[in-house]
Amino acid sequence: MKPLKIVAVSAGLGVPSSTRLLADRLAAATRQQVADEPGRAVEVRVVELRDLATDVAHNMVTGFPSPALAEAIEAVSESDGLIAVTPIFTASYSGLFKSFFDVIDNTALTGKPVLIAATGGTARHSLALEHALRPLFAYLRAVVVPTAVYAASEDWGTGGSGPGGALTERIDRAAGELAALILGRAATAPAAEPADDAFDVVPFAEQLAALRAN
User: Can you provide one Gene Ontology molecular function annotated for this UniProt record (predicted)?
Assistant: First the structure.
């Protein structure tokens, strides 16, 4: 049984970054809940968009990804579950975050389980998850988990991010929903395509000749 692949995309710009920290927390929680399923191996990867910013810009202008960007796009496209985390700028996702998903084929996320999350300086921007991120991934035909996770600055410094804290509870709940979708999708994976000779296809010319004969 091949390992399930979880990819977290972080659009944080700073080093260190609260956006990357949230991505790591969500990835670890999801990995733990998927790995609790007997016989399931899990691979986790974090894609740092900060390191790909120039490549993304060049791709938007030229239409061709660099090797590093192409590899990141492939990882996201082939993942069994995606965690997408962005800082909130001007009440919406960052330009880098949006640009990255703009250069991905718009069918690559069809049916893919996605957990959306964001960070910001104040809790007032938490609704950006619902009016900006959720519609974006709905347009891409992804399956977005019900619980979105927003972490404001105060969530990291008031004990909310520790065991039993409010942020930790949201992370665990969202991770559980993503894990359930990943495992459910793996369990119902479509069977192999039928062989080419499974169907008897009559060429159009022969069908037309038959009609004329009648």
Answer: oxidoreductase activity
